[in-house]
Amino acid sequence: MWPPVAVELPERHEDTPAPGTDLPPHYAYCFGCGDRQEDGLHLRASVGEGQRIRSRFTVTEAHQGAPGLAHGGLLACAFDEALGTTVGNLLRRPAVTGRLETDFLRPVPVGTTLVIDARLDGVAGRKVYVSAEGRIDAEDGPVAVRARALFVLVELKHFIDNGRAEDLRAVAADPSLLGSRPVELNP
Ligand SMILES: CCCCCCCCCCCC(=O)SCCNC(=O)CCNC(=O)[C@H](O)C(C)(C)COP(=O)(O)OP(=O)(O)OC[C@H]1O[C@@H](n2cnc3c(N)ncnc32)[C@H](O)[C@@H]1OP(=O)(O)O
């Protein structure tokens, strides 16, 4: 059963941009979306209809597991990012991945662009349920990967208490490293 508990499905946050709007990387050094991670995944997300966010991820030579094929762990990373950005942008509250499950249905060759449609499935207290499917090269392409996850809402303190001090200092010195954030920061 998914979600596994009774949930509410909140409206998306009033600050969520209009459908079709491209979303900036949430952190410049994020492996999933950051533009300062040369061999990162460089996922690009945009707002979909209702409780949906669409992301695109192009598999490069740096992402191989077997010759010419994407590594499954990196595909899981892409879905972690796509699902996390769905939670962050639709609820505008900080959250971290508690559990992530993936079904790999087809191999994904280097050069493929995965079109990942993620949606918010519901919220139960601090628990947020999201799911996604990734299609090969087009929004109606064959499904290659399905994923679902539980994110847990946390306070900003979670990142301040647990993040490495020099990285937190770098963000405080240059807040533009956080391209989008779930709450306004006042360092
Ligand atoms: C615009 C912005 C864009 C922002 C865009 C952002 C995109 C980011 C994308 C990347 C996201 C990541 O990779 S985040 C990084 C990877 N994840 C992490 O580092 C998280 C590490 N884990 C933790 O810090 C902790 O375990 C927490 C915070 C998840 C939970 O600890 P806690 O705060 O003490 O809460 P706890 O009571 O244990 O759990 C709360 C509830 O969740 C349930 N729960 C917790 N973990 C699990 C689990 N694995 N499976 C089932 N259920 C679980 C508990 O049973 C409980 O249910 P009940 O008793 O209430 O019923």
From TrEMBL:
Positions of the Thioesterase domain: 68-136
EC number, UniProt record: 3.1.2.2
Region ranges (Disordered): 1-21
Chief place of localization: membrane
Alphabetic keyword roster: Apoptosis, Cell membrane, Cell projection, Cytoplasm, Fatty acid metabolism, Hydrolase, Lipid metabolism, Membrane, Transit peptide
Pfam families in UniProt: 4HBT
GO CC terms, sorted: cytoplasm; membrane
Record localization: Cell projection, Ruffle membrane; Cytoplasm; Membrane
SUPFAM superfamilies: Thioesterase/thiol ester dehydrase-isomerase
Catalyzed reaction equations: octanoyl-CoA + H2O = octanoate + CoA + H(+); hexadecanoyl-CoA + H2O = hexadecanoate + CoA + H(+); (9Z)-octadecenoyl-CoA + H2O = (9Z)-octadecenoate + CoA + H(+); (5Z,8Z,11Z,14Z)-eicosatetraenoyl-CoA + H2O = (5Z,8Z,11Z,14Z)-eicosatetraenoate + CoA + H(+)
Protein topology in the membrane: Peripheral membrane protein
Cited CDD domains: PaaI_thioesterase
GO molecular function terms listed in the Swiss-Prot or TrEMBL record: hydrolase activity
One GO process term, biological-process aspect: fatty acid metabolic process
UniProt family annotation: Belongs to the THEM4/THEM5 thioesterase family.
Protein name: Acyl-coenzyme A thioesterase THEM4
